[in-house]
């Protein structure tokens, strides 16, 4: 669900239930529920930013004692160089907690140059 708050501002909420692979953490897939929120703001025609966060909770269908939680926070700044060409920089933090191991936290800084073209 996405909603325009004011001109140049948007707020979005998402909820999802999925089945996801655990990739080396457990023996099976996880039943995963996640919720996230994002806020976007355009400073000017060429400059925009976005902030977001998410929370996910997973369970092992074969063992009720195994749980996986993950939280993410992110910020991103984008500059439109010209139509379809954007330069961006952002950062995020991810924290994962699994019942059978110690919590882990990772940080990432992202720089991007993207080009997009659409046809109608």
Description of the structure:
There is one protein chain. Helix content is 0%, strand content 77%. With 120 residues, the chain is mainly β. The chain has one domain (2-50, 59-115). It has a seven-stranded antiparallel sheet with strand order 1-2-3-4-5-6-7, with no helix packed on it.
Overall pLDDT level:
88
Proportion of strand residues = over 45%
What structural class do you assign from the helix and strand content?
Answer: mainly beta
Q: Which residues sit in consecutive blocks of at least 5 with pLDDT less than 50? A: none
Q: Give the CA-CA distance, first to last residue.
A: 25 Å
Number of strands: 7
Order of SSEs:
EEEEEEE
> What is the number of helices?
0
Major β-sheet strand ordering: 1-2-3-4-5-6-7
Q: How many discrete structural domains?
A: 1
Using the CA coordinates, give the radius of gyration. 18 Å
Q: Helix coverage percent of residues?
A: under 10%
